[in-house]
Amino acid sequence: xxxxxxxxxxxxxxxxxxxxxxxxxxxxxxxYSELVLAEIxxxxxxxxxxxxxxxxxxxxxxPLLAIKNKNANTELPTIxxxxxxxxxxxxxxxxxxAFAQHHMTLFTDHxxxxxxxxxxxxxxxxxxxxxxxxxxxxxxxxxxxxAQESLYAMHYVNQYAGNIIAHIDLxxxxxxxxxxxxxxxxxxxxxxxxxxxxxxxxxxxxxxxKPEPDFQKCVINQVQKVTHIADxxxxxxxxxxxxxxxxxINYDATxxxxxxxxxxxxxxTTTEVYPDSANTCEQECIDGQVAAILGVIQYLxxx
Length: 303
What we know:
The protein is 33% helix and 20% strand. The protein is α/β, with parallel strands linked by helices. Helix 3 (90-102) links the parallel strand 3 and strand 4 (112-116). It is globular and about 55 Å long.
């Protein structure tokens, strides 16, 4: 299904005028300070908190915070958790925070944890996929990135001294992907939009360069205990990509500039929760994100 976006001319990529019109149409809908920063600060007795950058957008300042377990043992491997690369994908942010609050200290005898719960705070406040410059941070994890969100996260993680063995990046696929974000992307790039079928349920995106199917299966099995897994469509695909196994597709994260590809960790995955499903709720989506992290831990403990 094709849908014309209200900004721009069909077939013509946006210039600065169109990007400015798009930015003017955005508005603050919720508070990063109240919903994210306050929750992070409340973890100060459990975790170490570090500021790894600051974003200044539209006269608003957004400190970027990372969470680490206290008394890290440098001999242990590290699990990296990222959320809110797309700010509108709420359960990723809340799932990362919930894991830090309720579960992280249970596993620090085996692993260190590095958690960046909300990489795109302006996107979180405006419920947006892009940053104010109409750039998708999750297509911008590469050197000389045009997205400050991606650059700050990459620099911070690259300076981390520990051995990152796994990286789980927490995302959602929503109905607004088809109603707003894919039409906007096509308009921005001067292309024809063709919406995809939104999978009803949780699924994973593995890395084609290191797919690790047993690892992905362990995560799916853990998530399946708390929420339903998306079935493939009639073409044996999810979002237009052939399935590798139940609930799993693969992308080349490095080539596409995805957050999942920002480290050399051997075990990586991106979660995708469907919060608009009639078969789930907000808390279940958060629980699914936490379960995915627990699935990563379970697999690594059994290596």
